[in-house]
Amino acid sequence: MYNILLIEDDRPLNKAISVYFKKEKFYVLSSFSGQEALDILFQNNLDLIILDINLPDLSGFDLIEQIKIINSNIPILILSACDLDSAILHGFNLGAEDYVTKPFNIEILHKKINVILKRNTKNTFYKDDHLFFDKNTSKLVIDNKEIKLTPLEFKLLSLFLENQNQIILKETIIEKIWDSNENYVDEHTLLVNISRLRNKIEDDKHHYIKTVYGLGYRWCHDE
Question: One MF term in GO for this entry (predicted)?
């Protein structure tokens, strides 16, 4: 199930879009202002953001810039009544994946969203004889027993699975896994959390997180 944040201050339209995508098995979080959207963004793992340009408290373009600072990886689709070429180009220049003008066909919007999600989907699912993890549902199962993860452990495991068999520098990991309160994670905190994650997912026969000395870490269970 994909998590979508819908930022639209027109309440009837917001509700109509939400109802449609919930029926299509999406998990939809609704927001009616820019600040409310930022609050939701800090508290949730999102797969896609749909936003209107004309919001009551700030410009949708300004909101995109703030979103990209917080998490540059979340794809954004602009949904707006403004059909000026300059606005559309500005949206793309800020990093939007697509720009849909109102009025629109909900089924076409759905198709566009599916394309964006498919294009941006990384390795969010992992399964072997010992470990099952689905980032979209935050579910981790070890030997048929569900295991709880802290927010930092969840971010670490997600990052490793998105970059399987690739060396991830310690500096890159620290940059990516700021804690849930957006506090800086130092190298000691990183080491502690990797150790805790290893204790939860590894045993004598299953080793996943390899230390690459002097560089960082690598997820390579197949070795």
Answer: transcription cis-regulatory region binding
